[in-house]
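Q: I'm writing a short methods note and want an example of a predicted protein-small molecule complex. Could you take the sequence and the SMILES for indole-3-glycerol phosphate and return the bound structure as tokens? Please keep the output block clean; save any remarks for afterwards.
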Amino acid sequence: MNRIEKVMRRIKENNEKAFIPYIMAGDEGLDALPKQITFLEKAGATAIEIGIPFSDPVADGPVIQAAGIRALQEGTTLKAVIQTMAGVRPIVHVPLIIMTYMNPIIAYGIEKFIEDSYHAGVDGLILPDLPVEEEGLVAPLAEKYGVEIIRLVTLTSPLERIKEISSKGKGFIYAVTVKGITGARNRFDKQVGEHLQRVKSVSSLPVFAGFGISTPLHVKEMNRYCDGVIVGSKIVELFREKELSAIEELIKAANIMRTIK
Ligand SMILES: O=P(O)(O)OC[C@@H](O)[C@@H](O)c1c[nH]c2ccccc12
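A: Understood, no commentary inside the block.
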């Protein structure tokens, strides 16, 4: 069974709240990636989302864009990221999810990318610029190798579309909590809680909230309405500032829910 499926089953059975940190592969060089992954696993991450640096990252805010530029300057390539993940996989148990735009994987060769990812122990893919209508390009191949495509829904997705996406979905639903690009926010739209509950009501998969979440309070607040959170920009920033204990605190904010529930 795919590692994501196993973990989803576990969190459901135990009423756990998930915490998925995002990191940009190659920020601080690819040598740093295995250390970052093992640190995050030890700190209690449910799964880890690994970004592939790309020159035109349309959904990325300034923090992740800058991390991507640094990673590209370090010479990070998709191939090298997959090789690095293969190297760390034997000592890491949590699911590893690659987040990339379509362009790098088309350049790599879609089937080759999925095949190599599968052999490297990659469990899932987040492909923000792949619309459901175009999934045929990737989904059958992903299915063939047992790599799960994680679908995104947004604040503006109509209920019908959310239903369609969650019925096709695997693993969990990524519910985007802001209108716009990634990056820490001070405030969220008033309707976020309601929106998450709406997504949850039509989804048979766990629903995780992501975009803008940057404090332990945000983590707890979002977790009132869904099954877990995804945090990117803040994690990237804290790694850069070497504030490792602040990363542990953020992850613990999801753990606290686990013990209360
Ligand atoms: O950075 P934030 O606001 O915490 O959002 C998570 C996010 O970084 C990560 O999941 C991500 C990075 N780039 C993306 C592009 C699209 C969807 C999601 C992502």
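A: Remarks, as requested: Residues 22, 49, 51, 59-60, 64, 99, 128, 182-183, 210-213, 230-234 surround indole-3-glycerol phosphate (CB under 6 Å). The chain has a mean pLDDT of 94.
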